[in-house]
Structure formats: structure tokens, C-alpha cells
Amino acid sequence: MRGTRTFVEQALLREDLLPNKNLGQNFCVDEKVLRRLATALPLGGRTVLEIGPGLGSLTEQLLDAGATVYAVEKDGRLYAFLQRDLASDRLTLIHGDCLRTDYSFLPPDFIAAGNLPYCITTDIVTMLLALRPAAMLLMVQREAAERFFARPAQKNYGPVTMVSQLYYSAALLGEVPPGAYLPPPTVTSALVRLELRPDAPRESTGSLIKFAAACLRMRRKTLYNNLTETPDLRSVLLKMGLPETVRGEALTPEQLLELYRRLNA
């Protein structure tokens, strides 16, 4: 099995590979953690987009669960390794930057998965929200995981929180200690499952993320000051029963959606 410390250590040694800190490479070496993530949803016959397969430890679990996997790897060394070392007629490897890849080939009901690099977790999650997968199975830094469950005005409450809560129901599947990785990071990680809500808004997730970001552009400023060039904002806030002094960070996800709809009616 690939998700073991022995396999990872031997593969890195055999291929003369050093984990790339700039790419946030921390390889999970706990099979139970990987299996918990890959079995958090029924994947048989489903299409899965995996971000950053690395040495293929999670990839193997996804394939064992019956998924058809498209894995995007930026590191050319790991891409070449996977081409040689992990063959399956249900696996397509893509060499490229996940943030700049064209995903038009994916079916509407695809599932996203991955052990996300800490340094660009927010960028990747924002990209995934814009793609609007049917579900996401993510291994992220615990601080990033907490954003999916944050409440208005909390420090970690932001655009990702607001939009993800509008479109997805989130579940924390467990924490992952630093010792479950090679090399071990300095922080604790977490497993998160997000499933598209049946009552998800019809609006584009990308448009709502941009709007939420504008509302929270300067967190200590009022919503009115952040959206100064927005016509009719004062009257819309009045109709919603919100004071002009309200801050964007105080809006619930539902209020954000209502404000967006009223301003774009």
C-alpha cells in the first residue's frame, strides 16, 4: 500500500526526491486517515478530481473505492513518477497548475478531493467553489477547516465561509496530527466533507465569492464604505432592516445572498 511511511520513505529515496516546501509537499503516511477520507462518500462509478496526488497515496484509495480519477500534479518529478508507478485505466494524470487548468471535461456531478497544500488552500477552495462540484473530500490545515464552520464576526469568517455555507453542508471527519505526515508539518490538519445542498442558490458561486470579497474588503469598515459605488445600497439596507453602520463580516450567508439578489435585481 502506498499510504505508509515505509512506502513514502522508500519512494523518496529511490527517486532521489526531496519534498518541495514551496509547493507545500507533506505526504500523508497514515492509511487509516486516507481511507477515512476516500470512504466518506460512495465513490463507485463517480468521477473524482484530485488536487495534488503527490506519490499517489490518496489516489490509490480513490481508485480502490471505484472512482474514475483525474489527478492534477504541478511537480514534474511526481508527475513522471506516477506515470511510471501507478497505472490504471480509471486514472488520468494531468501535469499542470490546478489553479490554471481547464476543467470543462468534468461531468456536472464530479467530486473534488485532495490533501491540499497549506500555502494555497484558500485559492484552491475558492477555485473549487467556482467549479461547484457535487461534493468535496478535503484534507486541510485545521485552521482552514474551521472556516467552513465559522459564524458571523468571527476572525476566520470570510468569503469562503459565507459562500460554502450557502452551497454546501459541511462535516468534520476528524483531525490529523503532524506525525501522520512526512515531513511532519508544524500544525494539526483536519478532514472535511462538503456536500452540495439540495437548496443551493441558483446564482454562480464565482459571482457570489467576488461579491462577498467586496463586502469584506476592509473588515473594520462598514458595508456601506466597502460598497461606496453601489447604487441604491442605502435603500436596500433599509428594506433588509440593516443599519448603514453594519459591517460585511456581520452578515449571515443568507443575508449576503439576499443583498446580492436585491442589488442585482
Could you walk me through the main structural features you see in this protein, from its secondary elements to its overall organization?
The structure is a single chain. The chain is α/β, with parallel strands linked by helices. It has two domains: 5-196, Vaccinia Virus protein VP39 (Rossmann fold, 3-Layer(aba) Sandwich); 205-263, Helicase, Ruva Protein, domain 3 (Orthogonal Bundle), CATH 1.10.8. The chain contains eleven helices and nine strands. Strands 4-3-2-5-6-9-7 form a seven-stranded mixed β-sheet. A two-stranded antiparallel ribbon has the order 1-8. The protein is elongated and about 65 Å long. The termini are far apart. The relative contact order is 0.12. The mean pLDDT is 94.
CATH class of the largest domain: Alpha Beta
CATH architecture of the largest domain: 3-Layer(aba) Sandwich
Spatial separation of the terminal alpha carbons: 54 Å
Q: Spell out the helices and strands N to C.
A: HEHEHEHEEHEHHEEEHHHH
State the secondary-structure class. Answer: alpha/beta
Q: What is the fold named in CATH at topology level of the largest domain? A: Rossmann fold
Shape: elongated
Relevant terms:
265 residues, alpha/beta, Rossmann fold, Helicase, Ruva Protein, domain 3, 2 domains, seven-stranded mixed β-sheet, two-stranded antiparallel ribbon, 9 strands, 18% strand
